[in-house]
Design brief:
It contains 14 helices and 13 strands. The protein is an alpha/beta fold and 463 residues long. This is Carboxypeptidase.
């Protein structure tokens, strides 16, 4: 029995608990608020992370991390970021290695001065199910996952995420991503437009795709020319790589487990000349390759059997496997023993890679959605030449005239890359000196690109 002097205290605690529950009902996001990440420097913006269940029956839940804009988040757009793979983490790659507010350094986090949440409210989604902290209680959910399932889950995620964050419902929204997100992003955007025909929920203002897979043959077969023009292969090997067995044929055979002797010989020669000591995702990189970049390994199957000497400690993996970090993130490991950059339990339908998404991009443009395709120009996995060819071809198909002729753009007093715009709705840009993960290797230039994209303005023409 409580003594009289304790009754007012107990009543106060009970009232506070009731108030908090009422607040949580009005703003479910409160339960996902991050007080502070371990080792984090002080910041003024709010962070949230947690789960959104996309299938109640089999308890399939997608994990997200959300960093509100550094200044005046109410006036800034909402941006969803998706990494590729398929099967790699937007949390570990996008948020903690590329354009998020922090990067792990030893036991602590350091501020990323080029974080994209300087310009927008950044939402990072670990998708599909089985990637990172996202999970299903039914392991059958990890089997035969494909583009259609992923797009549908991502749509349901957004619908239910807006229930947690109702203040963002009518906010201007952009979707960005890289690599296999050349499939994820357009397919999700198409479903959002279809959904809006029944119920207006999404205020989609544009999509941006970095070094994206848009059309299998064009993207993959531009690799031979890239290798040859950068001195990575000989004239004779270039001839074989473009006539005897091109790269799209090799990858197609690889996924079907039917590699022909002729393709095997050609790829062995290509691998010998390019050398396993050159990073295919950044051909000018002169350091060891961290496993953080394995998000693209599915796009380079000849590298899968190679043993890569990782001579730098993967600090992101170490950080996200700390129990105190997982607790702060409201994250849990289900069915796996540790968090990994790219899923080892996901069985993705890799033949979806061969289904073109450039046609979906065309539909988005016809629906009035601006599109930016950008390429780190040191990437040989999805080279700029293939992306430029596809964008130019789409512009011609849609009858879009050049509105900004091909020219340089600037970051500070240096050339940031080259750009061309068609019909003020379809843009192509290169990021000079950037790898497959442009915001990692050229963060300053990538931030300039991102800022211009959000504002719908041409890239800086002068400094």
């Amino acid at each position: 029995m409580l003594s009289l002097q304790w009754k007012p205290i107990a009543m106060t605690v009970a009232l506070l608990q009731l108030y908090f529950l009422k607040e949580a009902e009005s703003f479910p996001s409160l339960l996902d608020r991050i007080n502070q990440l371990p080792g984090q420097p002080p910041v003024a913006f709010q962070q949230y992370s947690g789960y959104v269940t996309v299938d109640d029956k089999s308890q399939r839940a997608l994990f997200y991390y959300f960093a509100e804009a550094e200044v005046d988040p109410a006036s800034k757009p909402l941006v969803l970021w998706l990494n590729g793979g398929p099967g790699c983490s937007s949390l570990g790659v996008g948020a903690f290695s590329e354009n998020g507010p922090f990067r792990p350094s030893g036991e602590v986090l350091v501020k990323n001065q080029y974080s994209w949440n300087r310009e927008a409210n950044m939402l990072y989604l670990e998708t599909p199910i089985g990637v990172g902290f996202s999970y299903a209680t039914d392991t059958a959910s990890y089997e035969a996952v494909n583009d259609r399932i992923t797009a549908r889950d991502n749509l349901v995620f957004l619908q239910r995420w807006f229930e947690k964050f109702p203040l963002y419902r009518n906010r201007s929204m952009f979707i960005t991503g890289e690599s296999y997100a050349g499939h994820y992003v357009p397919q999700l955007a198409e479903l959002m437009i279809q959904f809006n025909m029944k119920e207006k929920l999404f205020n989609l203002k544009g999509i941006a795709l970095g070094n994206p897979v848009l059309e299998f043959a064009t993207d993959f077969n531009s690799r031979a020319e890239y290798f040859w023009s950068h001195g990575l292969i000989s004239d004779s090997t270039y001839k074989m790589f473009t006539s005897v067995c091109n790269y799209s044929r090799y990858v197609s055979e690889y996924y079907r487990d039917t590699i022909s002797p002729v393709c095997s010989r050609v790829m062995s020669q290509v691998s010998r000349e390019t050398s396993r000591f050159v990073d295919k995702y950044d051909v000018t990189l002169d350091v060891c390759v961290a496993s953080i970049f394995s998000q693209s390994k599915v796009l380079s199957p000849q590298d899968v059997t190679e043993t890569v000497d990782v001579c730098v400690e993967d600090e992101t993996v170490n950080y996200l496997n700390r129990k105190d970090v997982q607790m702060a993130l409201h994250a849990r490991l289900v069915g796996v023993h540790q968090w990994v950059v790219c899923s080892s339990i996901l069985d993705y339908e890799l033949l979806d890679l061969e289904i073109p998404t450039i046609s979906v991009v065309g539909k988005l443009i016809k629906a009035g959605i601006p599109v930016l395709v950008y390429s780190g120009d040191q990437d040989s996995v999805i080279p700029l030449t293939g992306s430029r060819t596809l964008v130019h071809g789409l512009a011609e198909e849609l009858g879009l005239k050049t509105s900004v002729p091909y020219r340089v753009w600037f970051e500070g007093q240096q050339v940031g890359g080259w750009t061309q715009v068609y019909g003020n709705i379809l843009s192509f840009a290169t990021v000079r000196g950037a790898s497959h993960e442009a915001p990692f290797s050229q963060p300053g230039r990538s931030l300039v690109l991102f800022k211009s994209f959000l504002k719908g303005q041409p890239l800086p023409e002068a400094f």
